[in-house]
Amino acid sequence: LYGRLLAREVEKLVSLPDFSDDKGILILSDFGGEHKGADFTTYSILICSADKRVVFEEKTKRLRSENGLNDPWKEFGFKDLGYGPISRSLDEFLSLADNFIHGILVTISIDRKIQSLFGLDKKEAQNQIVELFRNNDLGEWKGKESEKVLRVCHAISIFMSLVAFSGQKILWLCDHDSINEDGKKRGFTHTQKIFGHCLAMYSDNLYEIYGFAKPFEKDAGTTDLLSLADFSAGIIQEILQSEVAKKDVQLSDEKAKLAKWMGTDSSFLTKANLVFIQQDDGDWGVGSVNIQAKI
User: Fold this and answer.
1) One pLDDT digit (tens) per residue for the chain, 295 residues
2) Which H or E run includes 253?
3) C-beta separation of 23 from 169 below 8 A
4) Please, are residues 215 and 176 in contact by the beta-carbon 8 Å criterion?
5) Of 60, 59, 30, 52, which Cα lies nearest the Cα of 101?
6) What percent of the chain is helix, strand and coil (3-state, nearest 5)?
7) Using alpha carbons only, how large is the chain's radius of gyration in Å?
8) Cβ neighbours, 10 Å, residue 195
9) Of the candidates 18, 15, 44, which has an alpha carbon nearest to the alpha carbon of residue 105?
10) From CA 161, how far away is CA 203, in angstroms rounded?
11) Of 50, 52, 6, which is closest to residue 28 (Cα–Cα)?
């Protein structure tokens, strides 16, 4: 049901990037809303052209150097928006993303009142996922993480079915997270296999290469791309806390800029924000987040 509802909403999007001339696609993901007091879990995914990212990387490297973000090394992070050099760089950084990244930045937010997206009873649904993974050599998972990895893999796979083509090379960079931890009975290789199964559910594409990696240490190019997913996950969480959960959330100047950027169209970087809400009658409400109306 989750996959069908998500696919229905994605098909309503007016604009999707055209990767038909690209040899490679990058997928970068970051997640938020798992802290105490959060009302929504956010899954943010940047899918962009690997071929056309060079200018963005060159310009952000210059921006980093001019603002002292390389020594000591500092990532553009949502939690560090108030840090002087990041605050001063923010307008230009977001402008560079709009003008030099060819892709789509997706954030899917799930109301934490929704216990599971894969069954009416959380425990039963997650036990079934755990058993499914165990029986198919996909690792030993705990219920919470098994649900999370499916939420993420289904979301990426649905978008890839619409924007990617057979013969392309894809690389998924996932920020450090419980779904890509290496343990005794499961590891990131199991996440990769699960992703492969999900891709095949939505598309017949055969990719020349599909690789997987965790963040490269102090690599400005990929780190700055991942920062956009981190920004998106963080600010959408706060917007929903304010507008849906009706909590008193005060946006700093930097967060207000970020919210405005998320709600502003770009010629090259599409932004899509979808939310699943638990309604009073128990059903799910699914739709787009109209950020422009909230800033």
Assistant:
1) 788 888 888 888 878 999 999 999 999 999 988 788 788 999 999 999 999 999 999 999 999 999 999 888 889 999 999 999 999 999 999 999 999 999 999 999 999 999 899 988 999 999 999 999 999 999 999 999 999 999 999 999 999 999 999 999 999 988 777 887 777 788 888 988 999 999 999 999 998 877 887 777 777 778 999 999 999 999 998 888 877 767 877 889 999 999 999 988 888 999 999 999 888 777 888 878 776 544 4
2) helix 253-262
3) yes
4) yes
5) 52
6) 45, 20, 35
7) 19
8) 23
9) 44
10) 5
11) 50
Predicted structure pTM score: 0.91
Question: Sign of the C-alpha dihedral, residues 63, 67, 72, 77?
Answer: negative
Lookup result for tokens 């970087």? 269
In residues, how long is the chain? 295
- Residue indicated by tokens 């800033």: 295
Structure tokens at 248: 């008193």
Structure tokens at 14: 């007016």
Which residues, including other chains, have CB under 8 Å from residue 4's CB and lie 6 or more apart?
none
Buried b (16+ CB within 10 A) or exposed e, 129-153: bbeebeeeebbebebebbbbbbbbb
